[in-house]
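User:
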Amino acid sequence: MHHRLTALLSSLSPVRPWFGQVNADTLRADAIAGLTNAAIVLPQGVAFAIIAGLPPEFGLYTAVVVALIAGIWGSSMIMVSGPTTAISAVIFASMSQFAAPGSEEYIALVFTLTLMVGVIQMIAGMFKLGGLISFISHSVLIGFTAAAALLIASSQIGGALGLEKGPGGGVFERLVHVVGQFGGVNATAVIISGATILTLIVLSKFSKKIPSYIVALAMGSGVAWLLNAPEHGVAMFSPLGSIVPTVGAPNMSLPLLAELLPVAATVAFVGLLEAISIGRSFALRRDEPYDSSQEMVGQGLSNAVGSFFQCYAGSGSFTRSGLNADAGAQTPVSTICAAGFLVFLLLVLAPYLKYVPVPAMAGVILFVSYRLINFAEIRHVLTSNRSETAILAATFLTGIFTELDLAIVVGVITSLCVFLYDSAHPIVAIGAPTDINGRRVFKNAATYGLPECPQISVIRVDGPLFFASVENVEQQFRRAEAASPVPKTKLMGLKGLWKIDMSGAGLLLKEIRRARKAGADFHIFTTNAPSLRILKRLHVFDELGPDHLHNNKGEAIAASVAAADDRICKDCKLRVFLECAQKPGHRNENRQ
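Assistant: Predicted structure:
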């Protein structure tokens, strides 16, 4: 208990381990990276808040407060947190059922949700649950993000075409509304959104350090001014309500908390999945330590505190984190600088938001949603792994045809089902020796067409041998037996065995007795200490016998070849093993 309390206080301490790495050189690099980041996030924060169904200023508050706290208390040296497209889409899709997006009731509910998300994430981090994220397939996030991107795009097509705002709903409902209103397309709005998107496409070919979103919005605003857009029915943005957040506590009534709990759990999970995936990838790339449980604490603290400053739930941003790394960031000071510079840019540029046309912002969001879909990863999954394809498809299709928050649940359940299925189907391979570059190695006999010894099978089991997998393993044993005209002595390697229970031990005992009853034998070779302890405790070695347990494959083969039937060996031309040279009938034949 004392150890847990110490760890908790350490994770919340304002004195962070990275403080000692800050010096004059890192401060200079972090300041430059922070300025670059602030220029990028200004239009992003506005766009993401609109996606979430919130006034634009709340996205900017989130980009300041959440980034600041997550940067200090998180575990990554360069990851930048704040509003993200995926979480914004989930909030919009989930919270729209409770209140009209943009209404005061809706805004109040989002702040309560954000506090709940933060508390859930902090509790998960304090109980060191960061490792559990590793069990969730990355395909869940790919499929979910693609579904979120289509929902975002479908919500902005009308704005890009100058159509009236629709009633909401899923992807298809929004597209149906656009098709129904197609006769009212505003040509001026199309030109403005087209110019904005074209600017972003061109700028994306150049350096990431260019504040392309600001440039694109400026281009869209310039085109709107040249075409006198307001007189042609093009909507313009309203000025920001305030650039300073109001401090206040969210509504914490128990009935409301119970109602929002499923959505909060989903948003918390999506946020942690995003943040930990990003943080871990950059830590590996930069050869830096990374603590996923501490990242959970940092993300949770940033959302919990942010909810009191009119922030909505945020997470790690891959775009801003990648830009931060490319710009030369060294420590989390870069996120502190980015927050400070963003406040300054707000003071300077906020009055000009009223000159930005709605189709220009819609064009920016359409471009963001397109970039959100990782086509290369999707292609790789679809062409390389059927299990991952099933996970991706289940997540994506659920998000498209039902609710976006349900998609992440379905994806996680499918991911866990695939994990359980794979665990129940360990690899059972029969190996045979072959020469590769002068070395004698064992490879899968069936896959590589290698000859097998008529009397001995060298079997390797990779995976768990437990109650759910014994039936499948036994079936593979029987198929191997059916292919041989005579009973074979089994040499079983358990190097890849990482779990065994009473059912698995029972199968081994059954196979030992079966082999000996048929006139063959059974040997085990392994140096896996945990497996050895379990097998000893379950009395497998009492049945096997000490002379049939070996430290390596060579010992097991030598003992089995020595005990092999000399009458069969005498006429055998294969001489599969080196030890076969000691058996009758050996005339220095070339071993195959």
